[in-house]
């Protein structure tokens, strides 16, 4: 009879933990190596930016790259960016614009989406048709008339002009409608039987249920408008209303030839979204996979 | 020659031991069911037999050869998955022919685009088509060959899954709860078809299910698993009549067997406060008496035809037409549920209400005895005083 | 309950529906419908912000496209850029997603690292790329010299600049598409791979072509359409990195439309350009639904 060979496994959980890192095969280890090499190439620009932001101007373009500067001027660079240059204003502008856009988007999209999903009314098909058609229309196409309109009413270079084209997000309406459609009618009917008014149903049943979708969309919206260049480029005329993303364009015209400080400002502009991402990774990823619903 | 032999199969996931050293053999052509509650390890065992999972230790022998190192395709097995695992993007014919294509065409002839121009692919296509057709005919699904799985009913999908398994002419046919996604009526029908399929092909079947009725009606033998251990492997009737342990006795049979806790000391057994007539031999201390629900009947208060006669309080009556199930408690053991299965006609029930005092009678030789740990006491018995005296 | 209660409720609900959808409807009218009508109308005029008044000029603006060298060049640049960008932005994330999905240990850290560029502010990171790609002292050229290779004039050479921009864009989109592919991969039932391995399809190529690729088709369709549209929408990177240079070698379609509209104030011509762009987008969307429907009826 054959003797069964039982593989002796490491007994302590610590050893087992270590053993779990052992690649199953050589090919697997090589694959992991390549994946991390790729990841290093991907994050190298961030590493380089962070490094440059700590260096004096003449060190930034040194032919040999050292992560840690020979002369550390990180404190000077960041102090300069935040207090000598108007970056606090730029960041505040971006923040105000993103927050304003998001609030209005939610206030307009959630009710409309609920009406489209759960209430019957004349014109709902037409409205939904416009929503779907508008999904395809980018701001680049409508920018000229909206710009002309803003010129006409004299609102160029205001927060309003920065936010206005994004006050309604057809994507949000589409997304939330899909989400509300999946909400069981029986619960809404049960609430009606229990004496809830329609408004109460929205506030006490639908809104709490919609929080995951709203959160994911919020991430999507804030990132999109924090990073937007095109529209601010068109409507902003003064430094007072400049957004953080737009401010990066100033370096085209030798706004600052202190390269270390330049990259300190780039870091400051990039940092908020990266921090949000690291803390709300799941939301970020959900916001992207949700965008796939469209297809 | 054994169709399948398992030797001391062990498997753990993390810190959970799923299989704790299973060994058994199945004869060539046998139909064996693996039965147990979910989480008992039956599906893991099936996956180890198929090669989808590797055991931590132990050996799998199929048709006499050790298969531990063999990949699933080299084990000459077929498997029907619980939700059939049909390829949704392929027609029924393509689903069934997948195996033949993989087995007979070289890699380059299987790749997209290349497969259109490969001469070997072209030559083999009609051969494969005719084999697929033969299997489809056997399962009466010829008319479905060009449809996709999404266009089929549950029963039709089930047949396609069987067809995909049959086309290989395997040594071993594995099925993982293949009926669980069908409605009750269809289940009975397909159950019969699978039995017929087994008879007509003569293959070795291993069938995983949590449903004892399926296991009992279809198989030659049933392996009952619990927490990764084999409780008993026997024919359905042996499992029912001669269980090794309380766990087996409980699992097999519906309604569940009655388990009555008894205290035995120096030959005298008590059920609660009530003394059992006769002498208890080969048992001592806490003991379990087990009685199938159909072994008990209602008796008149004055009836003396049964060894036991106990007061019974009825809580619920289920009238199934051809039989009546009574649920209640024995007056001696008010904490223990007691079930009875009666033929419809019981005069003693007519005109009674739930309050009416009833009496249950049964014979000592219908009792099964287990010790407090649940192990069967084979030598134990209740012997009538008179017959003992006669000896 | 009185017999009239139900209809009255229905009427109330309808009024509520109008109330709820009114703000969004008005905004859609102001932000999408009227501007599109305006773009359409303006594109048939000679309107310019610089002069008062305008005349209808019929199809002149559209005819101008056929004679406009800049238009032809921008179109060519956009197509070349798309041809470089799309394959990289599709296949790299696909390979990465398949490689990462199988890993338990490092999956989340790799996901985070590859996703970083998606979250970052592209205008700021483009500034970094401009430094890295600098022809004289950029880190990439330093590395090439270190490897004994020649320096490349990444941003200054008209033949190379579109490749450089595509590289930066691929860097920015890898994580995005990878996450989509990962989501598509996780919904493929594991037991199909098991059935395949019992059927003998256990070679990685068989697994990919028999199971993964066909079942990933809806995701692939979405990713490819999305990537195509992203390619056409290229603007930020050009605006920060090259300003369309050198010598218009990286002037892509939307950048041209922007220049015509907001630098040269040829609003009417810019509107015509925008409208052509929109038609292309609608065509793509239509194609996507057609392909998607065909998939669905096939499945």
TrEMBL record, chain A:
Compartments where located: Cell membrane
Family matches, as InterPro entries: MetI-like, MetI-like_sf
Gene Ontology process terms (BP): transmembrane transport
Its membrane topology: Multi-pass membrane protein
Record keywords, A-Z: Cell membrane, Membrane, Transmembrane, Transmembrane helix, Transport
Boundaries of every ABC transmembrane type-1 domain copy: 91-280
Transmembrane intervals: 26-48, 87-114, 126-147, 159-180, 201-226, 263-284
Pfam entry (one): BPD_transp_1
GO cellular component terms given for this protein: plasma membrane
Primary residence: membrane
Family according to the record: Belongs to the binding-protein-dependent transport system permease family.
PANTHER family: ABC TRANSPORTER PERMEASE PROTEIN MG189-RELATED, ABC TRANSPORTER PERMEASE PROTEIN MG189-RELATED-RELATED
Protein name: Carbohydrate ABC transporter permease
Organism: Roseibium aggregatum
UniProtKB/TrEMBL annotation, chain B:
Annotated TM spans: none
Xref: PROSITE patterns: ABC_TRANSPORTER_1, ABC_TRANSPORTER_2
GO CC list: ATP-binding cassette (ABC) transporter complex, substrate-binding subunit-containing
Subcellular location: Cell inner membrane
Domain of life of the organism encoding this protein: Bacteria
Membrane topology: Peripheral membrane protein
GO molecular function: ABC-type transporter activity; ATP binding; ATP hydrolysis activity
Keyword Transport among record annotations: yes
SUPFAM superfamilies: MOP-like, P-loop containing nucleoside triphosphate hydrolases
Every ABC transporter domain range: 4-252
InterPro entries: AAA+_ATPase, ABC_transporter-like_ATP-bd, ABC_transporter-like_CS, ABC_transpr_MalK/UgpC-like, Mo/tungstate-bd_C_term_dom, P-loop_NTPase
Keywords, alphabetical: ATP-binding, Nucleotide-binding, Transport
Family (UniProt): Belongs to the ABC transporter superfamily.
Protein's name according to its UniProt entry: ABC transporter ATP-binding protein
The organism of origin for this protein: Roseibium aggregatum
Automatic annotation (TrEMBL), chain C:
Transmembrane feature ranges: 16-42, 79-100, 112-132, 160-188, 208-232, 267-287
Localization per record: Cell membrane
Gene3D superfamilies: MetI-like
A GO CC term attached to the entry: plasma membrane
GO biological process, one term: transmembrane transport
Keywords: Cell membrane, Membrane, Transmembrane, Transmembrane helix, Transport
Cited CDD domains: TM_PBP2
InterPro entries: ABC_transporter_permease, MetI-like, MetI-like_sf
Membrane topology, from the record: Multi-pass membrane protein
Protein name listed in UniProt: Sugar ABC transporter permease
Organism whose genome encodes this protein: Roseibium aggregatum
């Amino acid at each position: 009879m054959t003797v069964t060979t039982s593989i002796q496994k490491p007994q302590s959980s610590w050893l087992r933990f270590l053993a779990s890192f052992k690649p199953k095969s050589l090919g697997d280890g090589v694959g992991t190596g390549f994946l991390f090499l790729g990841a290093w190439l991907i994050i190298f620009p961030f590493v380089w930016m962070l490094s440059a932001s700590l260096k004096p101007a003449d060190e930034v373009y040194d032919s040999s790259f050292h992560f840690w500067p020979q002369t550390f001027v990180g404190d000077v660079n960041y102090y300069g960016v935040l207090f000598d240059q108007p970056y606090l204003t730029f960041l505040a502008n971006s923040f105000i614009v993103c927050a304003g856009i998001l609030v209005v988007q939610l206030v307009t999209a959630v009710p409309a989406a609920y009406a489209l999903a759960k209430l019957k009314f004349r014109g709902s098909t037409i409205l939904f048709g416009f929503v779907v058609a508008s999904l395809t229309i980018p701001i680049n196409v409508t920018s000229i008339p909206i710009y002309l309109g803003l010129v006409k009413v004299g609102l160029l270079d205001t927060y309003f002009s920065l936010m206005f084209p994004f006050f309604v997000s057809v994507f949000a309406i589409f997304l939330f409608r899909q989400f509300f459609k999946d909400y069981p009618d029986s619960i809404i009917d049960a609430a009606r039987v229990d004496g809830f008014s329609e408004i109460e149903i929205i506030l006490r049943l639908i809104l709490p249920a919609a929080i995951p979708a709203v959160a994911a969309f919020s991430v999507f919206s804030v990132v999109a408008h924090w990073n937007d260049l095109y529209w601010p480029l068109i409507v902003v005329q003064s430094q007072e209303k400049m957004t953080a993303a737009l401010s990066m364009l100033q370096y085209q015209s030798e706004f600052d030839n202190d390269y270390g400080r330049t990259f300190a400002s780039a870091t400051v502009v990039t940092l908020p979204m990266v921090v949000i991402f690291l803390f709300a990774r799941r939301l970020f990823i959900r916001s992207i996979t949700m965008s796939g619903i469209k297809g | 020659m054994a169709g399948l032999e398992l030797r001391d199969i062990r498997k753990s996931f993390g810190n959970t031991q799923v299989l704790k050293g299973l060994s058994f053999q199945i004869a060539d052509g046998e139909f064996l069911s693996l039965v147990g509650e979910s989480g008992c390890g039956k599906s893991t065992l099936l996956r180890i037999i198929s090669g989808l999972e590797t055991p931590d230790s132990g050996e799998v022998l199929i048709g006499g050869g050790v298969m531990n190192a063999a990949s699933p395709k080299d084990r000459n097995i077929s498997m029907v998955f619980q939700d059939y695992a049909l390829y949704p993007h392929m027609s029924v014919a393509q689903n069934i022919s997948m195996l033949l294509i993989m087995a007979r065409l070289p890699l380059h002839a299987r790749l997209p685009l290349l497969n259109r121009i490969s001469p070997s692919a072209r030559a083999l296509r009609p051969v494969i088509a005719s084999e697929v057709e033969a299997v489809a005919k056997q399962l009466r699904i010829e008319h479905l060959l060009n449809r996709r799985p999404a266009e089929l009913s549950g029963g039709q999908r089930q047949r396609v899954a069987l067809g995909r398994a049959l086309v290989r002419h395997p040594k071993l046919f594995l099925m993982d709860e293949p009926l669980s996604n069908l409605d009750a009526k269809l289940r009975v029908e397909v159950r019969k078809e699978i039995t017929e399929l087994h008879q007509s092909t003569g293959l070795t079947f291993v069938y995983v299910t949590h449903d004892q009725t399926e296991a009992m009606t279809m198989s030659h033998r049933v392996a009952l698993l619990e927490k990764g251990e084999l409780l008993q492997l026997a024919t359905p009737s042996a499992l029912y009549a001669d269980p090794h342990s309380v766990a087996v006795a409980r699992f097999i049979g519906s309604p569940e067997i009655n388990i009555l806790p008894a205290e035995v000391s120096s030959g005298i057994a008590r059920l609660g406060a009530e003394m059992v007539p006769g002498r208890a031999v080969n048992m001592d201390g806490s003991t379990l008496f087990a009685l199938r629900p159909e072994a008990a009947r209602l008796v008149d208060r004055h009836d003396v035809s049964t060894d036991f006669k106990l007061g019974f309080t009825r809580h619920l009556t289920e009238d199934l037409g051809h039989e009546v199930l009574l649920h209640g408690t024995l007056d001696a053991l008010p904490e223990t549920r007691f079930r009875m299965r009666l033929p419809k006609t019981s005069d003693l029930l007519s005109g009674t209400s739930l309050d009416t005092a009833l009496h249950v009678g049964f014979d000592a030789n219908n009792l099964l005895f287990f010790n407090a740990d649940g192990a069967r006491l084979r030598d134990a018995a209740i012997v009538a005083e008179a017959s003992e005296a006669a000896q | 309950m009185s017999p009239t209660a139900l209809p009255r409720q229905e009427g109330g609900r309808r009024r509520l529906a109008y109330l709820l959808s009114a703000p969004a409807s008005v905004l859609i009218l102001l932000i999408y419908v009227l501007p599109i009508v305006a773009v359409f109308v303006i594109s048939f005029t000679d309107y310019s912000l610089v002069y008062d008044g305008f005349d209808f000029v019929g199809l002149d603006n559209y005819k101008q496209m056929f004679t406009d060298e800049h238009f032809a060049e921008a179109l060519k640049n956009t197509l070349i850029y798309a041809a470089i960008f799309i394959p990289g932005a599709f296949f790299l994330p696909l390979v990465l997603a398949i490689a990462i999905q199988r890993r338990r240990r490092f999956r989340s850290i790799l996901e985070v690292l590859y996703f970083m560029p998606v979250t970052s502010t592209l205008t700021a990171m483009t500034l970094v790329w401009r430094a890295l790609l600098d022809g004289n002292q950029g880190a990439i050229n330093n590395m090439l010299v270190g490897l004994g290779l020649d320096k490349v004039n990444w941003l200054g050479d008209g033949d190379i600049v579109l490749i450089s921009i595509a590289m930066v864009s691929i860097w920015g989109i890898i994580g995005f598409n990878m996450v989509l592919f990962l989501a598509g991969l996780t919904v493929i039932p594991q037991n199909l791979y098991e059935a395949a391995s019992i059927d003998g399809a256990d070679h990685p190529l068989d697994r990919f072509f028999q199971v993964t690729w066909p079942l990933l088709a809806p995701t692939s369709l979405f990713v490819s359409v999305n990537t195509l549209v992203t390619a056409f929408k290229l603007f930020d990177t050009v605006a920060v990195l090259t300003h369309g240079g050198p010598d218009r070698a990286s002037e892509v379609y939307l950048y041209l439309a922007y220049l015509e509209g907001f630098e040269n104030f040829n609003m009417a011509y810019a509107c015509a350009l925008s409208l052509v762009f929109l038609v292309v987008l609608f065509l793509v969307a239509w194609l996507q639904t057609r392909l998607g429907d065909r998939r669905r009826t096939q499945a």
